Amino acid sequence: MNDSPLQVLTLPTSPYPDQRPGTNGLKKKTHVFQSIKNFLHNFIQCIFSSIDLRDRQGSTMVVGGDGRYFNSTAIQVIVQMAAANGVGRVVIGQKGIMSTPAVSCVIRKIKAIGGIILTASHNPGGPDGDFGIKFNTANGGPAPEAVTNQIFQLSRTIEEFAICPELRVDLGTIGKQSFDLENKFKPFTVEIVDPVESYANSLRNIFDFAVLKELLSADNHIQIRLDAMHGVTGPYVKKILCEELGSPANSAINCVPLENFGGRHPDPNLIYASELVETMKSGQYDFGAVFDGDGDRNMILGKHGFFVNPSDSVAVLAANIFCIPYFQHTGVRGFARSMPTSAALDMVARATKIQLYETPTGWRFFGSLMDAGRLSLCGEESFGTGSDYIREKDGLWAVLAWLSILAVRRQSIDGIFLRHRFDYEEVDLDAAVEMMLDLELMISDRAFIGQVFTVGEKKYQVEAADNFEYGDPVDGTISRNQGLRIIFKGGSRIIFRLSGTDSFRATVGLYFDSYEKDINKLFQDPQVNYDLFLMDTSKIVCFIRSAG
Ligand code: G16
Questions:
Q1: Most buried one in 240, 412, 462, 519, CB count within 10 A?
Q2: Which GO terms describe its biological process (predicted)?
Q3: Which residues contact 521 (CB under 8 A, 6 or more apart)?
Q4: Tell me, what DSSP letter sits at residue 159?
Q5: 324 near 332, Cβ under 8 Å?
Q6: Over the stretch 45-73, which tens digit does the pLDDT of each residue have?
């Protein structure tokens, strides 16, 4: 405890017009947070102001980040502002490190009022990279739209913020630190915790660690290769997979979190994770996985680099769900996927007679269903998979889930769902919006329904086309304008959607999915045999060009 009480100040500021949180938090170029006066302070103040004062007073908050550049500096400011805004206790991962799923887990375990996560997810880090701030609420999940809208409204009119400028936290030492603030009876406390332990404990209760250890033991010869891409997952992989489950040390690479992720793009897909893809092609490893910067996304690869696309991943997990002990205890309440995610999961849901939900993009929609006890397992095409034990997607959970299936039985798939997403990145925002409006006009024309497109010998007839909207079955909220869908007879689909996670300009995502029952096509590259992409969509392509 410090000797004299620390000053609490209220300082004047001016609003910024561009603090609207995207699909998952506010992401900007790092220099925006670092150099623009009070840009960080304003947004943090708006987060605190969005919490009712009575709930905030004396409450506990969790803070963690993926270790990217500016992480520790931002945490010092957040703690100074938390103290000045009446929060009683802040729990922080040692060195400011805590993965997004671990933050969700800790919020729930210690019944915190919420958490702040410093991450720009899969975007590059460093002074020239991206930085981001996410606010998760008491259920452990991303703040619902009503809250993020409120934060945005507050950010447009903010005039002052509260701060204890002299407060300094030692982020390196595990344990409690207390600070006396002027005008406060109780001290403000900061608790530095091991970022892995509490989360690892949850996984121990979900999976059978003895079975997994056996699978990874030398006798069984399942060789795995995990790439943490110098993101936050490294310490979790080392502790859980290597130390505890006995996977050899060389099975885990790039496990030291770095401020710039080693100069790479910490995005687990076939392009940015090419190092792992190439290694897997050698055939030395049976199972490979890679994670994004903050540890919530994952990509799974099989022997010889076989790509398990994320839409299929959640479907395979669903079909084998009882290989995971947790679900044997809880039962299965429902499955869910985001709209652009392929319909593979729907087929499993139909076969198992389990309720399926199709939600807009963004994990918070799943969180709402989980809170209502309607959802157990869900996934997204954007490399996200997870379950209702927390309210975030979870890369390491997905790995242990897959290994649990491998431990019980070798995967057999009697069909393959081919799906692919193409991103047109950093296009002009206005042009992208205009393109979407033009396209919507075109597909809403009644003459568009029934049109037939021919690819080789196959014909695709448009059955339906719309701008997806979602009525939340729990609270009735309607989310409009969630992406354009062109659905063909037989279930093949083309989806157009503007990304909600850009820090700069816009990304237009095109998603193609189709059911392929020919088992011989299982190992073919979806990029070369994908019919829908070859379809004569000249009208559509010309809209895309005008946006680029
Ligand atoms: C976030 C959300 C995901 C969502 C993704 C979409 O992921 O948590 O639920 O699928 O954004 O990204 P986009 O809008 O660019 O398609 P993350 O990993 O960035 O937190």
A1: 240
A2: carbohydrate metabolic process
A3: 416, 418, 529
A4: -
A5: no
A6: 999 999 999 999 999 999 999 999 999 99
> What are φ and ψ of residue 397, in 5° steps?
-60, -45
What pLDDT score was predicted for residue 218? 72
What is the pLDDT, as a whole number, of residue 86? 96
Amino acid 423: pLDDT: 67
Q: At 462, phi and psi to the nearest 5?
A: -65, 125
**Strands annotated E in 39-113:** 60-65, 89-97
Residue-wise over 381-402: b if at least 16 C-beta within 10 A, else e? bbbbbbbbbbbbbbbbbbbbbb
pLDDT at 222: 85
Nearest CA to ligand 1 atom 3: 362
Q: One of 121, 251, 338, 376 is an active-site residue; which one?
A: 121
Write down the pLDDT at residue 412.
Answer: 31
* Cβ 161 vs Cβ 42: under 8 Å: yes
Atom of ligand 1 nearest to the CA of 499: 14
Can you say whether the dihedral through the CA atoms of 195, 200, 201, 206 is positive or negative? positive
Torsion of CA 130, 135, 141, 147, to 10 degrees: -120
Which parts of the chain register pLDDT below 50? 411-420, 528-530, 533-548
Please, what are the domains in the chain?
9-193 (3.40.120.10), 199-409 (3.40.120.10), 418-547 (3.30.310.50)
127: helix, strand or coil = coil
Diameter of the chain measured on Cα atoms:
81
Q: 24 CA to middle of ligand 1, Å? A: 6
Nearest CA owner, ligand 1 atom 16: 499
Quote the pTM value.
Answer: 0.88
Q: 103 with 92: CB under 8 angstroms?
A: no
C-alpha closest to that of 164 among 4, 271, 307? 4
Structure tokens at 383: 């490399």
Distances (CA, A) of 67 to 74, 117, 339, 367: 11, 10, 31, 25
With b meaning 16 or more CB within 10 Å and e meaning fewer, what string describes 67-101? bbbbbbebbebbbbbbbbbbbbbbbbbbbbbbbbb
161-197 per-position pLDDT tens digit: 999 999 999 999 999 999 999 977 789 999 999 999 9
Distance from C-alpha of 43 to C-alpha of 155, rounded to nearest angstrom: 7
β-pairing, 384-387 vs 416-427, is unpaired
121 assigned to active site: yes
Pocket of ligand 1 (CB under 6 A): 23-24, 121-122, 296-297, 338, 361-363, 380, 382, 384, 499-501, 509
Among 132, 120, 124, 171, CA closest to 47: 132
Query: How many C-alpha atoms does 83 have within 13 Å on its Cβ side?
Result: 31
Q: Given phi > 0 = left and psi -120 to 50 = alpha, else beta, which region is 476? A: left
CA distance 367 to 215: 32
Residue 5 alpha carbon to ligand 1 centre in Å: 42
